[in-house]
Amino acid sequence: MSVLQILWFFVVALLFAVFLLLEGFDFGVGMATRFMAENDGERQLYLRAIGPHWDGNEVWLITAGGAMFAAFPMWYASLFSGYYIPLFLVLVALILRGVSFEFASHAITVRERSLWQWANFVGSLFAPFFLGMMLTSLIQGVPMDAQGNAWLGFFDIVNWLSVVGGIAVVYFCFLHGLHFLSLKLEHDHARHMLNASSKLYWIAYPALVAFVVLALVFTDFYSVHAVSSWIITVIILAATICGHRAAEERRGVIAFVSSGVTLVGIIAFIFNGMFPRVMVSAGGVHDLLVKDASASPLTLGIMTGVLCVLLPIVLGYIIWSYRIQRGRVSAKALEDSAYAA
């Protein structure tokens, strides 16, 4: 296995982690429009908070898929063919959510706007659920042949670990969204978000325990990569405790960073456990390895050069965009903009 193959496995993992880190709070805000908002005005306010960012954040998922396609074409072929239906459902949820922003902002009546706000909620809820379910189904070992073809039945995708994994991703995205809103809304709303998240954290602990127990039973992560898997597990637990404590102490920035670390830790746990495999086969007979699934050294070399050029530009743009949009969103500013329109 070459250095470039390891590098691009890490890059693909990093792209998925960044997607969940950034789009995770967008999903959480979308869920908060129904779980937290009390009226149409608050729902508009919540969506306004993520308005400048949500579409850019979704690009990271496309980039991750593109990097997988270019760097590991066999992995891409096996994953996307075997998990065609869950990925299709993720795509439908993202499309439904994406169009809802535009249609809700141009709705004439409250009823029309409510319809598209519901569409945003549904998309924000089910996109992370199906994505989390797919990723945690993947790590259990899937039926594969020697050519890398994955043949998945219903219960290969929908089982105890995958359902708990999907719910866990949704739950931590929701907490992440509440923490983001605590940084973007005025102080009364911000306190409300932190109060809610501090109570919701008590549900997160049994969910994490259940996930670890199921991972011990249904995966080989804690035997193949025992030390690193336990270290990542401890980091996820520590970040959850830190986020809980920060929410109780009304420290929104620390709470937001902690919930972000938790989501990144979930991706790190999955990719660390799979390495050096990219697809874990049932029984470990036909595992698809990094060294066998990658593109040619020339392709990886060209991609590395492009990465070195474009990555600083992209990071600079992201930092700049978040910096200029760093202010809090107020209900009065929303009313003023609606009146001006």
Descriptive report:
- With 341 residues, the protein is mainly α.
- It has 15 helices and two strands.
- It has a two-stranded antiparallel ribbon with strand order 1-2.
- It starts with a helix and ends with a helix.
- The model is unreliable at 336-341 (pLDDT under 50).
- What is the overall number of helices? 15
Uncertain regions: pLDDT < 50 for 5+ in a row? 336-341
Task: Give me the strand/helix succession.
Answer: HHHHHHHHHHHHEEHHH
Radius of gyration based on Cα positions: 20 Å
The helical percent reads over 70%
Distance between the termini: 58 Å
Write a compact overview of the structure shown.
The chain has helices at 3-35, 40-50, 54-71, 73-82, 84-105, 110-138, 154-157, 160-184, 187-218, 221-224, 226-248, 252-274, 290-293, 297-324, 331-340, and strands spanning 277-279, 288-289. It has 341 residues and is an all-alpha fold.
Layout of helices and strands:
Elements: H1 3-35, H2 40-50, H3 54-71, H4 73-82, H5 84-105, H6 110-138, H7 154-157, H8 160-184, H9 187-218, H10 221-224, H11 226-248, H12 252-274, E1 277-279, E2 288-289, H13 290-293, H14 297-324, H15 331-340
Helix pairs in contact: 1-2, 1-3, 1-6, 1-8, 1-12, 3-4, 5-6, 6-8, 8-9, 8-12, 9-11, 11-12
